[in-house]
Amino acid sequence: MQAADVWGQRWSMNDLPMARTYMEVACRKQTLVCLAADRSTMAGLNQLIDQVGTHVAALKTHVDLIDDWTPYLWRKFCEKAKAADLLIFEDRKFADIGGISRKQMSGIYDIRSWSDLVTAHLISGPDIVDGLQAGWGDVGRQGGVLLLAQMSSRGNLLAPEYTAKVVAKGKAHDGVFGFIGNGSRPEELAQLRNQVGDGKLIWTPGVNLAVGDGEMGQRYGDPREAVLAGSDCIIVGSGIHKADDPGAQAKAYADASWQALCDRTSES
Length: 268
Ligand code: 5BU
Prior knowledge:
The protein is α/β, with parallel strands linked by helices. The chain contains 12 helices and 10 strands. The strands form 2 sheets. It has an 8-stranded parallel barrel with strand order 1-2-3-4-5-6-7-10, surrounded by 5 helices. A two-stranded antiparallel ribbon has the order 8-9. The longest helix is centred in the C-terminal third of the chain and has 22 residues, at 246-267. The chain is globular and about 45 Å long. The mean pLDDT is 97. The structure holds 5-bromo-uridine-5'-monophosphate (5BU).
């Protein structure tokens, strides 16, 4: 199946190379799932790739929560992810001024050298996007920034006025791959999609087949509803990595998200 047919306007109105890469990977593997790989050991992370790699399009990491992290083990893990046709997305939630964000892309974790995507808040102003892009440029790589327009957690401070400002600034910037939207509230997500239009992607955490409240203020919505409301990628963590059979569960999320995308496209 051709990515242009499946993604419709989202493809034709978005020529950012990294966005097109994602849409192609999703098509090849018939999944809109990004696995939030929140395991705290390298063995646990590698095991996840073996278990679910064929059913997910991207891996979302928190490089700073791993107990036995070393540069060598991380390089091997990234090679394994690439071999499994996965984008690597470091959910670092950068928030500093542009020049410091650029430096934070290097340092011990050297995020610029292996990440395809990173998250950032726009609270410090739009130069953060230029700083992160300069970070990738420093090592001759390209990447995309996902701006936090909404969050999934209860009581977060990203009010609708703030969301609208993030979207207005982010839409105009080539370095912005897309926005993080709240997967737990389809109505909020539909509003975000209206503001964003078709030119940028929306990725959504707070998604689980078991809808409701999660741990410590997390909230969950249904994967199909999220995609129908305008999500282009469902970010799923514990729903997959804590399942008895992560592979089977990843396939269930993949099927639900892919079917929803096909239905969304045929309805439009
Ligand atoms: P869960 O196990 O599916 O709840 O994991 C969700 C992941 O998404 C976790 O890694 C969070 O850091 C991440 N996340 C989130 O839950 N909500 C948000 O608004 C953002 C990220 Br941004």
